[in-house]
Structure formats: structure tokens, C-alpha cells
Write a structure and sequence with these properties.
mainly alpha, 74% helix, 430 residues, two-stranded antiparallel sheet, 16 helices
């Protein structure tokens, strides 16, 4: 390797920053743009958000069947970045659902593979990946937050500026990717099966009742979970908040902070109680938002920021802890398959159902006559996922059992063991 590891780590950190800047500068704000500017209905907004789930379901096929066998990662990342930038700029021009939705699906199918490819490239070149990769990955949270803050500074939450911004940065990202170290395809000539790509080799784990119950609960929690991503920016715009994406980006600060605490909770409480706290955090988040609807202005601000800042518990204690649990249950032979399977459930099938359901509930609760600036019955909207998450918590407590071996990696320590390379490569940490 011609360049030093310190130089490599800086370059990979910049790569992660740009990659998540793109995502953070449109994903959280798209709902309010579609609702207020393009006047899309709730079901159309939910369908638009399902585009990323479709991209995530396509991604394993693309990476497993094509990228890993025929193309150098840095070249493919560069092409996908530039093509994605062009598609984002095109999204800024279209104003009908019939044009917007398929274009967004194509874009998400181009962007989603870059998450796994970028992780895989980084893990391939880092000399001490278990120490350096988590530190580099922190820049993804910084990039996501920077995208949201930049969009707010440009006052672009309700305009196509978000797609101009993300499109321009995507082109920069693509050009930058070409400068990354050469990473040849890993499985040239390998006979990769569909089961390996989707993680179906891990289905044998479903014979364990606790694991099967865990997978069921992970799918079910995705349904209320995506109400937050689909509808929060719309709610805040109806409250007439300014700088929406900048304020919502505070969730990334919480994410980093609670990731450092995760290992402590896992060691002291075990998987069941830790994951239960993660599910309970979603109940709390939606209860706070429901309580904010008719609260006095000062209290309303406190409740909404509370819902945003609980994100670290919501995400890390549920998904990261869940992935570590899957890793502990898997064997060396099926570890990558198990992580691929859980990723397909969380960011593919679960996200698809959850976003569509959020859109339907949003449409069902649109007021016939607007009440001031409020065009939706937000009390009913927020209580729906709150009750749903509470139901999932009950199911989880009934069906899940802690594994007999509860040794867990200390994700906050630099020398801690982490899930294998393929597992991390498939993980779109947000």
C-alpha cells in the first residue's frame, strides 16, 4: 500500500462525510417539500419514502451479483455517485408523482449500494479495521448533520434546493471516489447464490424460538418506526418552525453519545432489557410528540426536542444492539448471512411496509378544514405508532429470551471485537 494509514484514514473519513451529507440533505426534509410545495397526498409521500426501502432491497443483488464480481469498488462508487447526482438534479425539475416516484426509485437503487461498497472498501484497506473503522464511521453522523444544517441555512426544506444541494455534493462524492485506493472485485469467478446474497443461509437460526421472535419483533417495530422519518418534517412545518433539518440533525449528536453507552447497558442488563429499552424509547418518542400537539409553546418546544434527542436510544439500543445479538447467535459460517438477513428485514421489507403505512395514516388524518396552520390531526397520527410500538414491546417481552452466552463486544472501546467485515459492509448506520 503506497500511502500511509494516517493519510488513508483522513481520506476515508472525508468519503464517509460526503456520502452521508448527501443523504442528510434531502431525506428528512423531503416530506415537507412534497406536502407543501408539490401538494402530494399522504399515501404518495409514504410511497416516496418507500423508494429507499426498494433501493435497499435491490442493493444486495447489485453488490453480490455485479459489484463483488466484476467491478473495482472505487470505480463503481464514482460512477454511482455521478449518476446519482444527475438523478437528484432531475428530481429537482419534476413536479408530478408519476415522474417523481420512479426517478426517486432509480436514484435510491443507485445510492443504496454505495453504503455497502464504501464500508467494504474501508474495511479492506484499513490495517486495523476494528480500531479505525468505528472512528471513521463517526464522520457519517457528522456528514448527515452537516447536510441538514446546510439545507436549513439555505432555507431549502420546502423547495427543490434540497435536491440541487444533494445532487451537487453527489457529483463531488463520485469524483472523489475515483481517487480512493484501488479495490478489485472480491469474488471474481465465484459462484454466488441467491441465498448467500439475501442471507437465506441464516434461516436455520429461525428454528430457535427466541431468534424467530426477535426477527418478528424487528419487522413489526419498523412499521411504527418510519412514521418519524416520513412525517416529522411535515409536522414541524405545520408548527411553522424554521431551520427544521438543522434542529432534527441534533439526533446525530444523541446517536454518537448513546453509542458510547451501549456496551455498558449490554454488559449490565443483557440483550433483552437493552433492546426493550430501545423499543420503549420509540413509545416515549411518539408520546412526547403526541403531547406536544396541544401543549403551550414553551412546553411544546421541550417535548419536540425531547423526541429528537432520544434518537440515540431509539436507534443504538434497538438496531445496533440487535445486530450484535444476531452476531452472537450466528456461527462463523453463517455470520455474514445472518447480518445480511437482518439488514434485509430492517432496511428493506420492514422499511417498505412502515413507510407505506405512515403515508396511509397521514392521508387518513388530513383535516377537511385546516385549523390555523395545522392541516392534519397530529394527535391521532402520533398516537398510532405509539400504540404500535407499545404492542411490539409486549410481544418482545413475551417471546424473547436472552442467549445463554451473553458476551458482547465493547463497541465504545477501540480494541473491542466487532461483527465481521461482511456484516459491517451491509450496515447503513444512521
Amino acid at each position: 500500500m503506497t500511502q500511509t494509514q494516517s493519510s488513508l484514514k483522513i481520506r476515508l473519513a472525508v468519503f464517509m462525510f460526503l456520502q452521508y451529507f448527501i443523504w442528510g440533505s434531502w431525506y428528512m426534509s423531503m416530506g415537507t417539500y412534497l406536502a407543501t410545495t408539490l401538494k402530494f397526498g399522504g399515501e404518495q409521500i409514504g410511497a416516496a419514502y418507500s423508494a429507499f426501502a426498494i433501493g435497499s432491497m435491490i442493493s444486495p443483488f447489485f453488490v453480490g451479483l455485479i459489484a463483488d464480481r466484476y467491478f473495482a469498488s472505487e470505480k463503481l462508487l464514482g460512477c454511482l455517485g455521478i449518476a446519482g447526482g444527475a438523478l437528484l438534479l432531475l428530481l429537482a425539475q419534476v413536479d408530478t408523482f408519476q415522474s417523481f416516484y420512479p426517478t426517486l426509485i432509480i436514484y435510491c437503487a443507485a445510492y443504496a449500494p454505495t453504503l455497502a461498497l464504501g464500508n467494504s472498501l474501508s474495511l479492506h484497506h484499513l490495517a486495523n479495521a476494528k480500531v479505525d473503522f468505528p472512528r471513521i464511521k463517526v464522520l457519517s453522523a457528522v456528514g448527515w448533520a452537516a447536510g441538514g444544517v446546510t439545507l436549513s441555512l439555505l432555507r431549502g426544506e420546502q423547495s427543490a434546493i434540497q435536491f440541487h444541494l444533494s445532487g451537487a455534493v453527489s457529483i463531488v462524492f463520485g469524483l472523489y471516489a475515483f481517487t480512493l485506493p484501488h479495490t478489485p472485485p472480491r469474488k471474481i469467478g465465484a459462484n454466488v447464490t441467491l441465498g448467500e446474497i439475501l442471507g437465506l443461509d441464516a434461516l436455520a437460526l429461525l428454528r430457535k424460538p427466541a431468534f424467530a421472535g426477535f426477527i418478528l419483533c424487528m419487522f413489526l417495530i419498523c412499521i411504527p418506526l418510519y412514521f418519524y422519518f416520513v412525517t416529522l418534517s411535515i409536522y414541524l412545518s405545520e408548527l411553522q418552525w424554521s431551520g427544521i433539518t438543522a434542529k432534527m440533525s441534533l439526533s446525530q449528536v444523541s446517536d454518537v453519545a448513546f453509542l458510547l453507552l451501549l456496551a455498558v447497558f449490554l454488559r449490565r442488563l443483557g440483550y433483552k432489557r437493552t433492546i426493550a429499552i430501545g423499543i420503549l424509547a420509540w413509545v416515549t418518542r411518539y408520546a412526547l410528540l403526541a403531547g406536544s400537539v396541544e401543549a403551550a409553546p414553551g412546553l411544546q418546544v421541550v417535548l419536540v426536542f425531547g423526541a429528537i434527542l432520544v434518537h440515540g436510544v431509539c436507534y443504538d439500543f434497538l438496531f445496533i444492539a440487535g445486530q450484535l445479538y444476531v452476531d452472537s447467535e450466528a456461527t462463523e459460517k453463517n455470520r455474514a448471512a445472518a447480518q445480511g438477513f437482518i439488514a434485509f428485514i430492517l432496511w428493506g421489507v420492514g422499511a417498505f411496509v412502515g413507510t407505506l403505512m405512515a403515508g396511509k395514516v397521514l392521508a387518513m388524518n388530513r383535516l377537511a378544514t385546516a385549523q390555523g396552520t395545522m392541516a392534519h390531526d397530529w394527535q391521532s397520527i402520533w398516537m398510532t405508532p405509539a400504540v404500535g410500538a407499545l404492542f411490539v414491546l409486549g410481544v418482545f417481552l413475551l417471546v424473547f429470551r436472552n442467549p445463554s452466552d451473553q458476551r458482547v463486544p465493547d463497541v465504545s472501546a477501540p480494541d473491542s471485537p466487532l461483527p465481521g467485515e461482511d456484516s459491517l459492509a451491509r450496515t447503513p448506520i444512521r
